[in-house]
Design a protein that fits this description.
Blueprint: H1 16-31, H2 43-48, H3 76-82, H4 95-109, H5 119-148, E1 156-157, H6 158-168, H7 173-181, H8 190-206, E2 214-215, H9 217-224, H10 230-244, E3 252-253, H11 254-258, H12 268-289, E4 296-297, H13 299-306, H14 311-325, H15 335-340, H16 342-346, H17 353-360
Antiparallel strand pairs: 1-2, 3-4
Helix pairs in contact: 3-5, 4-17, 5-9, 5-14, 6-7, 8-9, 10-13
Length: 361
């Protein structure tokens, strides 16, 4: 994630009309980028970078409430409602086709066919979609494991992975492999070295006993997707707490969780995004993460909150998702409601919901 802090100064009139025009263009482009705090990357933006970082553990994990850097997963509701079908509701989709597809999903969730979705039905659906994301991760892991296991022996050593990782960052693969084999010092910048140290710690954690720094395909899956391994889930939680914990007590207070990243807001748009950041994180902390409402989130509470296969969390999430669209307050979700609030469930606005519901159902 990149936070851009834009500071632009007016060019001297001596620079001439061309320079002044460039400055104006730069100012216009930077206005939208001046907001800093939240991770606003969408699923579609992340997909564009997927190939580049396929062997690097992703910051974003499908169906998990927080990103690895501690930011809220902005696509969570769509991920646990649509599963692997998220791309079917992108901006280029034909609205009528999208409405019909949404009504098909409604029918699949509505197990008892009473044209109403209950919290229990939604909970069951969320668990199914989360499992679907995991199966997708397993399939992708098989491909990624093959990319870092050049000799095909079914094991990946830390050195093999390190070569592939540095090659993905633009280093010469042969030179890096020779340097590692000859125990020579690697010529990498300080930031890359820090990333390598963090990855090595994660590699050790994924390496089940007996520890040998060799990962099997299953262990490599835990390395890339810690959310589906109990031991790695604990490790992921420790990493998030370490990043957000300001007083070193290994737990999170509300001020720590809603604390804004360092930066400067230059305009009202940036201030509004700051305010929304704080509002969203406060709500998540108070209503969902802090289960005993004592104002402190322990590692255990955060682990339960992050666990994608926690059935209690799935039921809680189901109730909240229904409440968002439950206009008649009957604690169920009906076709008209899900079409009206389609942006919440699918990320896309599907207009004329009232007129089209009978056509599509």
């Amino acid at each position: 994630m990149v936070w851009l802090v834009a500071m632009t100064s007016r060019q001297s009139s001596l620079c001439g009309l061309a320079a002044h025009s460039l400055w104006l263009l730069g100012l216009v482009l930077l206005m939208d980028a001046s907001a800093r705090p939240a991770n606003h990357s969408s699923t579609r933006e992340r997909a564009a970078n997927k190939e580049e970082n396929e062997i690097l553990p992703p910051d974003h994990l499908n169906g998990v409430k927080l990103e690895m850097d501690g930011h809220l997963n902005r696509d969570f509701h769509q991920e646990v409602f649509l599963g692997k079908d998220m791309d079917g509701f992108d901006e280029d989709s034909e609205p009528r086709r999208s409405r019909r597809k949404l009504m098909v999903i409604f029918s699949n969730v509505d197990v008892n066919t009473d044209r109403r979705i209950s919290a229990k039905e939604m909970q069951h659906w969320i668990m199914e979609k989360t499992a679907e994301h995991f199966q997708e991760a397993v399939k992708e892991n098989k491909l990624h494991f093959g990319a870092v296991d050049p000799d095909g022996d079914g094991y990946v050593s830390w050195d093999e992975y390190k070569v592939k990782f540095l090659a993905s960052k633009g280093h010469n693969e042969r030179e890096i492999a020779d340097a590692i084999r000859n125990h020579e010092e690697l010529k990498v910048d300080e930031e890359t070295q820090e990333v390598l140290e963090n990855l090595k710690g994660r590699w050790y954690q994924a390496d089940n006993p007996p520890a040998d720094l060799l990962l099997t395909e299953e262990e490599f899956l835990s390395f890339l997707h810690p959310e589906h391994s109990r031991g790695m889930l604990k490790f992921m939680v420790k990493e998030i707490v370490r990043d957000l914990d300001q007083d070193g007590d290994k737990q999170l207070s509300l001020p720590e969780f809603i604390s804004l990243p360092v930066g400067t807001v230059e305009n009202q748009q940036g201030q509004d995004i700051d305010d929304n950041w704080v509002k969203d994180r406060r709500k998540e902390f108070e209503e969902l993460i802090d289960s005993n409402h004592d104002g402190i989130v322990t590692m255990e509470e955060l682990e339960n909150y992050m666990d994608p296969m926690n059935e209690y969390n799935a039921l809680n999430e189901a109730k909240q998702m229904i409440a968002i669209a439950d206009e008649n307050q009957n604690h169920h979700l009906e076709p008209e409601e899900i079409l009206k609030y389609s942006e919440f469930f699918t990320g896309s606005k599907l207009m004329d919901y009232a007129r089209n519901v009978h056509e599509e159902f």
